[in-house]
Amino acid sequence: MYRIQAMQTFVRVAEAGNFVRAAETLNLPASTVTTTIKNLEKYLKVRLFNRTTRRVSLTSEGLQYLTKCREILTLIAHTEASLSDSVMRPQGRLRVDMPAGIAHFIVMPKLTDFFQRYPDIYLMIGVSDRKIDLVQEGVDCVIRTGELSDSNLVARPLGQFRWSTFASPTYIRKYGEPQSPYDLSEHRAVHYFSSQSKRPNELHFYHDSEKLSVPVEGSIAVNETGLYIKMCLEGLGLVQLTEHIVSKHLAEGNLVEVLTDWRPPSVPVTLLYPHQRFLSPAVRAFTDWIAEIMEDSEQ
Length: 299
Hints:
The chain is of the alpha/beta class. It contains 11 helices and 14 strands.
């Protein structure tokens, strides 16, 4: 940084032709400008100026150095300007990873808005819920649901998913509607398995501070949210999901919420990214945007 400041001072003296005038334009004491030039000449081991009592003129080495200094300072200015522009207009490749349900039913419907805001970002969306090494796999940030294990990543809470239990009208006609979790021995569920699930055959409930985990029989297990919903629509069993993901099916009557007095516990949603002194403009833009649409979806 000192050499850049010294170059800036040198260029100003060369343009002003006088130490005093250069000091005035730099808002510095004349002695500071003189000392800076002397130290620069000492460092470079060349004389940059011919000095008289009234003005200074460049030596041949000074002329050569002036040309290079102007090139360097121009490049620095352009680089800083481009970074400032990228903050105002984020750009470049951004790789994010998220569960399928969030990708399909929350992010996908809003992508037009994202690209209207940030047309210069090339978005790469990976779909998974496994634990990944962001640095090793070149992922900029991830969205995860559920309680987090110990992590050295920065965590930004995005809100809570309120979960419910659902069935299709076809299922209810065949098995009836359960009135409490204690009825579930007579029912079936579509099981969901993932790297995070320990007992995929259980349904979980919370009521008046009472927590309950109930094993429910079933004939199929899946690990993709769209397929999980489809199996429920086909009448193959009960499912537990956030209302955001199945709101369309609920409005059309294709799914029905059951066990409304025994809801599953809410699930936290978190965005994670590596510790960085300066967060890239593209990551900052995406994190702010996803936080905004998550907040809207909860209202």
